[in-house]
Structures are given as structure tokens and as C-alpha cells.
Amino acid sequence: MNDIVVLPGGEKLSLDWKLSDPERFQRRLKAKHADNGKAGPGKKAHCLCVHQGRYLELQIRELKESYYFACMPNTTPYHRPTCPFYKPNPEQSGQAAYVDGVIKDDTEHDEVSVKLITSLKRNSPTSSETSALSPAGTRSGGKTQRRMTTLGLLHLIWERAGLHYWRPQFAGHRTDPKALRRAYATSRNIKVQRGITLDQVLCPVVSGDQGIQYFTQRTIKNHSEKLRLYVIGRLSSAQVHPYGKGYNIELSGIRDGYRMFMSISQAKWERLEKSYSRELVEFSRNEEGLSVFGLFLVTIDPIKKGKYSNFSTAQIEDAALMTTTEQLIPVESRYEAKIVELLVQKDRTFIKPLRFDAARELVRPDFILTDMGKKEGYPMEVFGLTDEKYLARKAEKKNTTRVFLELTDGGHGTHPITHPFRLYLRFLLLRLPTRSADRIALRRCRFTGHVFYFASITAFRRLNDINASRCIHHSSLHMTVFQEIGHGS
Questions:
Q1: Cα–chain-centroid distance for residue 204?
Q2: What is the pTM for the complete model shown?
């Protein structure tokens, strides 16, 4: 991935050398180990991430005559999510639901180990019937998850590849081949079972990339006889098997030389429909700008006879689906997809925290705005439903979230918008630098049929004349307040 660290004295070191030229990598770290310890602020080794106007510095540590980089204390969340030294705050994502030990970081080797719910050995039973394909919403909140499911692994891949993160410079550059190359590269540092790293069992499928195709074919050749494998890619087709034996699944690009037929039994398909109904509905709509990615645990067998003797069958044992925007940002609703679209249009920088295997009740922000000057970013929440369970959860989120967007009707309280893709927000999350309420005018923006007003929190008390009791307010910052006051043309 061509990540660079600048050593004391200005020498640049490629982190790719750790794998491609480990002797050279160790030699340079050893030579700079003492210098880095003596260097003062601003002179130590650092990556290219900038936080509060300064590069984020790194330590060079020694363990058993082996040298490695380590982050300074409490700085890992402030690296860019595309940086190999970045580690998200688990309390801001679904990782908070895992008990200790499900995800273990190995700082020395820049690796993470996970405990999967399903064994990768071909002859072992799968757990998809009871857990991996069960709806996440049926479990209670808190640290209750003792194993990682296929969905959790898909989110971990996406997070460590930095694909849940967006900044304006990514526009036009985030494509399926580049994204899956990053996913494959980061999989080298994810241990999924004893002696097995994820890249040994991961098979990306994408159109127009011969390198990815080579990785996948090599993995199938080397490991499919003894292990189940993971296939990852963009879902392109799900058709009933012509002989009534379940469904045939196709991923985008799978016909471009991968020589693989993927299928799922009727029973597993029904469980998949139950667990990922929202994703399958979005897939069936085939709307521009939204797509569905999947991670599939498969058992692969070669076809030994007939005209397809060069091909393989891939029987799906377990699966996870994920809706993404055009920028490959995962979303859980059309509301979130519209907000992503608007944030991208406004050249905002943000993170989408992922659910992993957390229950629906686990409180976490929908987005984290990282261009607001606060080092850990500003959590943002999108509200829009009115059922009793949702309102209780919303009240809990108000205590932890800094920025809110609430969808309301014209004077009759909050309600679910039934056609969110008809809504067009033209003006979103403007940063208002002044703290003087007298100099802040209310700014109007329009949904189709809905009017929103924005104001600084310093002007919050002045909103009483427009029914501020229904306004979700920012708890402590001079930021943005949202208030809808009625229908508009």
C-alpha cells in the first residue's frame, strides 16, 4: 500500500519492506533505534498523518532483537483511517459489543487476531444455522458477543482497509479494484485461526484486475482442499437454481476468468433473507448509487468432468451482506445513504462507524465528522422513527451524540419519511465560526415538502418562537442545530 515512515534525520522508510525486504527493514530500524529515543519533539520518526498541525510521532521499540514501530500513547485514533497505525476507538463502533479476547491486537507485528464463530476446516460443522445468519437485532446490548461472525469479519476488513472513511481527495479514486486490493493487503495482518492469516483464505472477486484474479486462483489452488475459503465482492445476481436446489449467486466480475460457480442451498438462502432482508431489498431495487457487497464462507470443489472441468463449485456455508454507497461507504438505511451523498457533495471528511456483531440497541454514532477541529471528531446521529422502542433509544443517544438530524412533520411531531430518496437536502452541516447569537441568521434549507432551519447553539434559546421544544440541540458546542417547522414548497 506504499505507506511511508520518516525516520530521524529525514530518511524515508517504506513499510512494504517489512514483507518484501525484512532484513533491510530491520537494519534501518536498528540503526535509528537509539536516535529516535534521544530525539526531541518534532524530530522523532513519524508517519504522514497530521494532527493539530503536527505529524504524529512513532516509537521504535526492540523485543528479542527484533525492531518495530509503535504509536505514542493515546494517539492511535488520531491517525487517518487509511494509515496502518490507525486503531479506532472501539467504543464508537460495534466492537464495543465483543467481550475481551475476541479481538486481540499484536502491536509488535502490527497484527490483529480474532475468534471466529465458525471453523475454517472443511470437515468441521458450521455455526451458521444458529448464530452467523441469525438477525443481530434479537440479541441484547452490551459486551455479549463471544465470537465474531462473518458480518463482523466483513466489517473488520472494511475498517482496517480504511473503506469506512471518506475525505474529498478520494473522489474519483475509490473503485472496486482499488478497494478490494486494500482489503486483500490488510487481510495479511488479520489472524483468523491458529497459523492462518486471512489472506490465505480470502478470495476477492472483481472485474478488470488480473492481479486480484491471480491472488484468488492461487488461494483456491493452495488451500481449498483442506480449508473453507472466504469470497468477497459486489453482489450482481441471485437467481433460483434451474433444478430447484437453492440459488445461484454471482459477483461482479466472476465471469471474467475466475472459473467459479457459487450457489447456496434453499435453507441457507431463507436464513440469509431473514437476516439481511434490508440489503436484499436494496439489491432488488437496483438503484443507482447503492450496491451490496458480500463476504461468503464457501466450500470449493473442482469440477472433474464435462465441459466445465476447469471450473470449481463454491457452496456457500455462511454469508454476510452490506449495503454501500457509490463511495463504498457502508450504510444501514436510505437516510444514511442520503446523508453520505450530501456530506460528499459538501467536501466533508467523516468516518462511518460499523456495527460488527453488536445488537441494534448498542448506542453508537451514525457518523463521526473529522473536519471540525476536535481531535476525536464530532459524532453525528440521524433520527427519523417514532415507535416507542426507537424513542427510548433516541433518548439514550442524545446523551452521547453531539450533532443530530431529526426528521419531523409539519407541527405533528417526528415521523418516518416514507420516500427518503425523494428528499434533497441542499445545505448541510455548515460550520458557523462566530459565537455571537445576534450575528447568526437562521439558515433555511429544503427537503421536498419539508423545511429545515439551522442555527448555532448560541442562538438556541432564540428558537423558542419556532417551537424549540422539538429541536434536538447540541449539548456543549457552538455547532449546528436542526429544526423543521413545517411544510414548504
A1: 17
A2: 0.72
